[in-house]
Design brief:
The chain is an all-alpha fold. It contains seven helices and no strands. Helices cover about 60% and strands about 0% of the residues. It is globular and about 45 Å long.
Length: about 140
């Protein structure tokens, strides 16, 4: 992975960025904007399940406004809803998060390789809501 942190773009290698974030999360490496960068990379990759797990394992005290905004994008994606308004809010984040928002908005559906079907997403959300998950 590049020595530049946070990476200026997700387009070059979002998978490597997500992997580096996971490594930093379990090691003593300190990275600025780690959780929001990680969430954005997972959204870009279409890794909605991993994005949900990132949200759930982040302590409430560590959920800042930036991460909350990115979680809103992931949550709407999971629910099969339009994410454009949520991404618009992320486009006002500091660089490079604002660049990530533009890249996610412009990514073709084929780029989001692991998106599950709308029906499966709705089943997941329905199940989680019965468990009192705050979706």
């Amino acid at each position: 992975m590049s020595s530049t942190w946070p990476p200026p773009s997700l387009e070059v290698n979002a998978k490597a960025i997500a992997d580096e974030c996971e490594f930093a999360e379990v090691s003593t490496i300190q990275r600025t904007l780690l959780a929001p960068v990680h969430m954005a990379a997972l959204i870009y990759l279409g890794e909605q399940v991993h994005a949900r797990h990132l949200w759930r394992r982040t302590s409430v005290e560590d959920r800042d406004e930036l991460l909350n905004d990115w979680w809103e994008v992931a949550k709407l994606n999971i629910q099969g809803k339009d994410v454009s308004e949520a991404l618009q809010k992320c486009s006002h984040h500091p660089s490079p998060l604002n660049t990530y928002a533009s890249e996610i908005a412009a990514a073709p559906p084929t780029k989001k390789k692991e998106q599950t079907s709308m029906q499966l997403n709705q089943q997941i959300v329905s199940f989680l809501e019965t468990k009192r998950w705050n979706a």
